[in-house]
Write a structure and sequence with these properties.
This protein has 16 helices and no strands. By secondary structure, it is an all-alpha fold.
């Protein structure tokens, strides 16, 4: 009981973390501390939900936070929670790694809910520990060489490798995608490219820049200018952000 519960000192350190490793802009926020599940649901706020479960993990342990997510999902609680659950367990995965310091120990607490968000969080912290220099210098064999808890974790490593490289090169997503083409495993290349472009188009800073620009044609231009071997994956991740920016107007236009 209380496995991976933060000590007072560690809790203080974790509370200083202002955001998540790859999803720039996402993370626990001081203004949401103390808010309950249904407060966050009414706000339809990703960061409020992340903060709520961050609080539970700090007080009761990561396992308790994960169990609550599972309970809410099984009982269909929260009208807006499903849209944010993946990012919530992302954050729990990162916290688990920070507390356990070992991938396998943290993986044992995977609530296996809301996609593979928890595992994604583990890999984000693992790759952060590995460091930027090695990540870019050894992109090709990196995930193949890492010790896996099981073979299943290999694809999530490649996917999050793409996320991380895109986060490090957020001003040059094409260059980040080119690193993904160095991945030695063909399926791994696909997973990396998908993760890289997904991260770019989900980055709060990038989205804010695109909203300020106000020109959808410039969004399409990002993919138009991408190398041929990465263009498909760029286009695949482009449309969710268009929908986010225009708040559904794209769907209405498509039906006209």
């Amino acid at each position: 009981e209380g496995l991976l519960k933060a000590s007072a000192a560690v809790e203080a350190d974790l509370r200083l973390v202002q955001g998540m490793t790859a999803e720039v802009g996402a993370g626990p926020r001081p203004e949401f501390r103390g808010k309950g599940f249904y407060d966050c649901d009414r706000l339809n706020s990703r960061d409020c939900f992340i903060t709520h479960y961050d609080d539970i993990a700090l007080r009761q342990g990561v396992a308790a936070a994960g169990a609550d997510v599972v309970e809410k999902g099984k009982n269909n609680k929260g009208a807006t929670f499903p849209a944010h659950c993946h990012q919530v367990v992302h954050n729990l995965g990162q916290m688990a790694y920070q507390l356990a310091h070992r991938f396998g120990d943290a993986a044992d607490l995977d609530p296996q809910v809301c996609g593979t968000g928890y595992t994604h969080g583990l890999w984000e912290q693992q790759l952060e520990v590995i460091g930027t220099d090695r990540m870019f210098a050894e992109t090709g064999p990196l995930c193949m060489d890492l010790t896996m808890v099981s073979e299943w974790y290999k694809w999530t490593c490649h996917h999050i490798l793409g996320h991380m490289m895109s986060a490090k090169l957020s001003n040059d997503p094409t260059r980040a995608s080119e690193y993904c083409t160095k991945v030695s495993d063909p399926q791994g290349r696909t997973d990396c490219l998908t993760g890289g472009w997904m991260n770019f188009f989900q980055d709060d800073v990038v989205i804010a820049r695109m909203r300020a620009d106000g020109k959808l044609e410039n969004l399409f231009g990002v993919c138009y200018g991408a190398p041929q071997r990465t263009k498909f994956f760029c286009s695949q991740e482009l449309f969710p952000v268009i929908y986010s920016i225009v708040n559904g107007a794209a769907f209405a236009a498509g039906k006209a």
